[in-house]
Design goal:
With 343 residues, this protein is α+β, with helices and mostly antiparallel strands. The chain has eight helices and 17 strands. The strands form four sheets. Strands 1, 2, 3, 4, 6, 14, 16 and 17 form an eight-stranded mixed beta sheet that branches. A four-stranded antiparallel beta sheet has the order 5-15-7-13, with helices on one face. A hairpin with a 6-residue loop joins strand 10 and strand 11. The radius of gyration is 20 Å and the shape is globular. It binds fe (ii) ion.
């Protein structure tokens, strides 16, 4: 059951001037001052929306929260960019990005990865020519295998958030809610053992980044981060795939990027049982323009169905944010307390 709130025309009329003012005051969504102010600015959102998000955060009524009905003028957006590198400058979706940021900032703190989309906080999710059969969010003809976002990293987010700008072919995002799994028939104890080798996913590979960010200090820190990712590929870390409460566990797994060599027989069997149940309980959710969804990255795994990209400017186009409830938990990985990028 999705935790859902539909914005009314009155909500949009109230939010619109706030977004217009903030768009005038800030150059882009990456403006550190805007990111810093976001939790305070979010208090100007409609109280019923704030209460709705707070209920999702604390009550965990579902693993998927959807805020629908944000006004999006698709004609004003212009063509879907061919690559995430071509986005962000004078973003035609700046107003929507601000709304998305404010909602995310009710749930926690937004953060990014030095090794992903050149260290931006606001990501673009769109099909990229040449990636059709590559295991990456920018693929299309191949489905995106279900996964926990950044399952390989101890600083992974509590939520992965998606905002839909365009989805003309109703391509489905796939989600499985841990609440739908029958834990009584699974070997939960085995899945809590730190024996499962989890590798970094392709989105953190240097071949999917720009050669230089233009900032030598950032480049140096990023090179160190890429080296760490490589070391985790060469010598994968062993982790549990379940954690938290044994009667209602949290999940962290990305089977496409796992190596099963050397797993004990019991672990292999327990893992296969969990994956089979997840496959059976996976649901399709087709995002519509103006939808902001917040996937609980502890309580759900997600993926995407395959589709044929158009490459004519009308393609599916989402924005993505990573959200953590424990920014200080990643302090060792970030150069300053208020720096949001994990190196
Ligand atoms: Fe993902």
């Amino acid at each position: 059951m999705i935790h859902h709130l539909a914005l009314t025309p009155e909500d949009n009329a109230g939010i619109g001037p706030l977004l217009t003012d903030l768009a005038k005051e800030h150059a882009s969504i990456e403006d550190p001052r805007l990111i810093r102010r976001a939790p305070v600015l979010a208090r100007s959102l409609p109280p019923r929306l704030l209460e709705f998000l707070e209920e999702y955060r604390l009550g965990e009524p579902s693993a998927l929260c959807r805020v629908s009905g944000l006004a999006v003028d698709e004609a004003a957006l212009g063509p879907t960019p061919p690559h995430w590198r071509d986005s962000q400058h004078d973003s035609p979706a700046f107003h929507q990005e601000i709304f998305f940021l404010l909602c995310a900032s009710v749930l926690g703190d937004v953060f990014g990865w030095a090794t992903q989309q050149d260290g931006r906080l606001m990501h673009d999710v769109l099909p990229i020519r040449g990636h059709e059969h590559y295991e990456l969010g920018s693929n299309s003809l191949q489905h995106l295998s279900w996964h926990t976002e950044d399952a390989f990293h101890p600083c992974r987010g509590d939520y992965v958030a998606l905002m839909c700008l365009k989805n003309p072919d109703q391509v489905a995002t796939t989600v499985c809610d841990a609440a739908d799994l029958d834990w009584s028939v699974l070997d939960v104890e085995a899945l809590f053992e730190p024996v499962f080798t989890q590798m970094p996913d392709n989105s953190h590979r240097p071949e999917n980044a720009s050669e230089s960010t233009g900032d030598p200090t950032v480049d140096r820190l990023r090179a160190r981060s890429f080296a760490l990712i490589q070391s985790w590929n060469d010598d994968p870390v062993r982790r549990p795939v379940l954690f938290g409460d044994r009667t209602s566990p949290y999940l962290a797994l990305d089977p496409y990027h796992m190596k099963m060599d050397g797993w004990p027989e019991r672990s292999l069997k327990a893992f296969a049982g969990l994956c089979d149940q997840i496959e059976a309980k996976m649901k399709d959710v087709s995002l519509e323009p103006g939808d902001c969804v917040f996937i609980d990255n502890f309580r759900a795994v997600h993926g995407r169905r395959s589709f044929r990209a158009r490459y004519d400017g009308s393609d599916r186009w989402l924005k993505r944010l990573n959200v953590t409830r424990n920014l200080r938990g990643s302090r060792a990985w970030r150069p300053a307390p208020d720096n949001r990028i994990i190196y």
